[in-house]
Design brief:
With about 375 residues, the protein is of the alpha+beta class. It folds into 2 domains: about 10-230, Orthogonal Bundle (Endonuclease III, domain 1), CATH 1.10.340.30; about 240-350, Nucleoside Triphosphate Pyrophosphohydrolase, CATH 3.90.79.10. The chain is about 40% helix and about 10% strand. It is built from 14 helices and 7 strands. The chain has helices at about 10-25, 45-50, 60-70, 75-80, 85-90, 95-110, 120-125, 130-145, 150-160, 170-180, 190-200, 220-225, 330-335, 340-350; strands at about 240-250, 255-260, 270, 295-300, 305, 310-320, 330. Strands 1, 2, 3, 4, 5, 6 and 7 form a 7-stranded mixed sheet that branches. Helix 1 (about 10-25) packs across helix 11, helix 2 (about 45-50) runs antiparallel to helix 8 and helix 9 crosses helix 11.
């Protein structure tokens, strides 16, 4: 059970909500998708940024957001795009199911809603790729619906404010209940963004800047001198480690790429041929997945990559020839410009075909 605050919630909630908004009016972050003070937020901009920000930092998203908006300035433009173009533009941002859902959602908004996003969190949940948090964030920020968007930042802020000892999933429900009591009668969208900014810039996971927090005097975790103990974390499960191989097959000035299946890990992306990425394939079984029965040479070292649920180590094999190999024969000179996912860029770098690998995220 959550520990009860030392004073009644009904007494503290209104002043705390106002204090947060007063702080945010002075300390708000300027973000490219955020409406300026006094202006109405663009639902398309809010939705696009919220999808991109799932498990990804603001610094990483900013450049991708600008490129997407320049190429597809309206949801109807994105709906009319080819999925492969959307995936290519997304390459390196990781978690590629988001890009597939982004395109499907744009089509749904354009075809079923006349290009206008639904105004309520309940209706937004019916769209592809829009979960509870994203729906609440869009509804609050774009339409000022009084609802609470609970992400990791909000969980951290509220769990520290009330020194909540719950762990997920109970923590999320208790945080949502407590945060709803703090919600002012007006400015729901500003409140949602203020909570996000407070968690991102002040109530950080490590070294929280309690001296700048508008809730510092009310914070139970600060009074106890242990803010970093919250939220209480469950023991991390050890990620499984998997092995496999990537095959770099050249034919003259071209190299073989494949289009991965639309669903699953790196779905729909272009890639070098590999063993199944979600399986542990022992060295003696790896050549059964080679795209051509030719003479393969093993490169020293390996490519390592960490996905959300497992780590992966790929041995890289190279060969010349390619008799009978089917796929996307791509000029080596054009490979640098290919929108490859980060793992495949690493393979290209390891094989000496690409100059430098990008950052990026797992699936």
């Amino acid at each position: 059970m959550a520990r009860k605050p030392e004073v009644a919630e009904s007494d503290t909630a209104p002043p705390l909500g106002k204090a947060l908004l007063d702080w945010w009016d002075q300390a708000r972050r300027e973000l490219p998708w955020r409406a300026r003070p006094g202006r109405r937020a663009d639902p398309y901009a809010v939705w696009l940024s919220e999808i991109m920000l799932q498990q990804t930092t603001v610094a990483t998203v900013t450049g991708y957001y600008a490129k997407f908006l320049a190429r597809w300035p309206r949801v109807e433009d994105l709906a009319a795009a080819q999925l492969n173009d959307v995936l290519a533009q997304w390459a390196g941002l990781g978690y590629y199911a988001r890009a597939r859902n982004l395109h499907a959602c744009a089509i749904a908004v354009a075809s079923r809603h006349g290009g206008r996003f639904p105004r309520s969190a309940v209706a937004l949940r019916e769209l592809p790729g829009v979960g509870a948090y994203t729906a609440a964030a869009i509804a609050a920020i774009a339409f000022d619906e009084p609802c609470i968007a609970v992400d990791g930042n909000v969980e951290r802020v509220i769990s520290r404010l009330y020194a909540l000892r719950d762990q997920r999933p109970a923590l999320k429900l208790e945080v949502e209940r407590r945060a709803a009591l703090l919600l002012p009668a007006a400015r729901a969208g500003d409140f949602a963004q203020a909570m996000m900014d407070l968690g991102a810039t002040v109530c950080r996971p490590r070294s929280p800047d309690c001296g700048r927090c508008p809730w510092s005097t009310a914070c139970a975790a600060r009074r106890a001198g242990r803010p970093e103990d919250y939220p209480v974390k469950a023991a991390k499960a050890v990620k499984p480690h998997r092995r496999g191989a990537a095959f770099v097959l050249r034919k003259g000035d071209a190299v073989l790429l494949l289009r991965r299946p639309g669903a699953g890990l790196l779905g729909g992306m272009t890639a070098f041929p590999t063993t199944p990425l979600t399986e542990d394939v022992a060295p003696e079984a790896q050549f059964s997945y080679a795209p051509s029965r030719t003479r393969w040479r093993r490169l020293d070292g390996a490519v390592r990559h960490v996905f959300t649920h497992f780590s992966l180590e790929l041995t890289v094999f190279v060969a010349e020839g390619g008799a009978g190999a089917q796929g996307l024969w791509t000029p080596v000179a054009a490979l640098e410009a290919q929108a490859l996912p980060t793992l495949m860029r690493k393979v290209g770098v390891h094989a000496g075909l690409i100059a430098a690998a990008g950052g990026g995220k797992g699936e």
